[in-house]
Amino acid sequence: MYKREILIFFLLASLIVSSQPVGAQEITGPVYIVQPGDSLSSIAVRFSISMAELMDANGISDPNQLTAGQQLVIPGLEGITGLLSTEIINFGDSYRSLMRQTQVPDGLFRRLNHVVSPSEFYVGVSMIIPGPGDSPNNKRTSPATGESLLELAVKNNTDVWSLADINGLNGSWDGLPGDTLFAPGENETTANTTGLPSAFISAEIRDLPLKQGGTGVIKVQTIPGVTLGGLLVDHSLNFFTGEGGAQIALQGIHALLEPGVYPLKLDATLPDGGRQSYEQSILVVSGNYPDDPLLYVDSATLDPASTEPELQLLISLTTPATPTKLWAGDFISPAIAYADSTYFTSRYGNRRTYIGQGTELQVQGFHTGLDFGGGDGLAITAPAAGRVVFAGPWTVRGNATVIDHGWGVYSGFWHQSAIQVQAGDMVEQNQVIGLVGGTGRVTGAHLHWELWVNGIQVDPLDWLIQPYP
Questions:
Q1: Helix boundaries (H) for 279-426
Q2: Count: domains in the chain
Q3: Assigned domain for 457 exists
Q4: Quick one: pLDDT band at residue 399, thresholds 50, 70, 90?
Q5: What's the CA angle centered on 215, arms 214 and 217, to 5 degrees?
């Protein structure tokens, strides 16, 4: 009887062990942090696995129970450990430099991000970056013209074969001038370990991806004595010295620029006259601007004989980049004096069609500023300090005032009933500069505020929401 009880006990125990669900087994792998908007199915598709595999690896029974910030183990990614971070690619994060820095095989990196070609790797796109872990190879260096890989290795206290192996080079003959390489050790500065040439300590573009009508803020730290220039889309960049010695360029993105990828190039001139350049494609996305109703206006305000000379004069006024930054802190609303009764009658970027009254003349474009409702005679105040560069009547813009805030940033105020400043005046933030009116091409009295950044009109609302630079 005793032996029979022992036999029954072992039979029951074996049944309990064998009935454990498959999902209870421990599965290891890299960890992905759930992002806002992620679903279990989208994550499974991104990593080319099934939802069942993903749920099983993480003990998930309800696919709807997923929250941002949650950690998920991703099965089937042999050779990768640690966190899989979702990052917006910034300037200098080249495909080749990330391969060298993370030491993740090319095929595996492409699988993670569904990348077919390195040409798809551009600034502003979201990618999964395998954590480099405790990599000992964080020192950036670049061969100078005529400098051998052996000389570069000696300079960085390493050997030529280690340098070649870390950077995927074929041998000591394979180093190219200006190519960004990684060597054992740490940078002597607080540089980001990106693919930028050695003249650049770091480079950052804010608010990626850039949008139609947005303001690009490009902040660069260089080694001492470097002069910067560059190009974004088709506009030359103007760099100015900001806090901490960083060189800063502000550049507007045209509201009608087709969404897509465009060139961003930085040029560094070294103290000895040498030059280093770096170019990368940058993503520009849609501003999702709606269409305004048809606008019927005085046909004289659509006549190219009047509109074109006026536009060219405005462009010439807003093209110079004054090297002194005249504003400090945040911009404020130019309608702040009547904030209790004001409202937006039309926002920047709205697509518009103007029709000349009594004619078949049509002009298509976009709304170049931000309109505040109100009424005749309300005060218009300066959104930031600056110098008045124009004050007078125009055909399309009516009574107009243009203020230079420095660094290529300008404000324009159209349709005024009265102008209360003159060209050459220095104005302070919140100083009254004019009165709301209905002059020029309008359908009623309102304040139109326009903001130009390095030759391009941008959304003024962005400048009210956050400080620049």
A1: 304-318
A2: 2
A3: yes
A4: very high
A5: 140
Any domain includes 289: no
CA terminus-to-terminus distance, the chain: 87
Query: What are the tokens at 8?
Result: 């029954």
C-alpha–C-alpha distance, residues 176 and 316, integer Å: 43
DSSP annotation of 377 reads: T
* CATH number of the domain encompassing residue 115: 3.10.350.10
At residue 93, the pLDDT reads 74
183 CA to centre of own chain: 29
**pLDDT tens by residue, 104-124:** 777 777 777 776 666 667 788
Residue 151, CA distances (Å) to 142, 145, 165, 319 in order: 11, 12, 16, 46
Between 80 and 156, the more confident residue is 156
Which of 101, 130, 159 is the last residue before a domain boundary?
A: 130
pLDDT at residue 228 in the model = 97
Two tokens, residue 224: 């001492």
Burial code (b: 16+ CB inside 10 Å, e: under 16) for 438-456 equals: ebbbbeebbbbbbbbbbbb
Say if CB 245 and CB 212 are below 8 A apart. Answer: no
Determine, yes or no, domain membership for 86: yes
pTM greater than the 0.90 cutoff: no
| 339-366 per-residue burial string, b: 16 or more CB within 10 A, e: under 16 | eeebeeebbbbbebebbbeeeeeebeeb
- State the residue range of the domain holding 90: 27-130
- Give the dihedral sign, CA 359/360/365/367: positive
CB 287 within 8 A of CB 280: no
- At 334 the pLDDT is 97
Which residues have C-beta within 8 Å of that of residue 82, sequence separation ≥ 6? 30, 31, 130, 131, 133
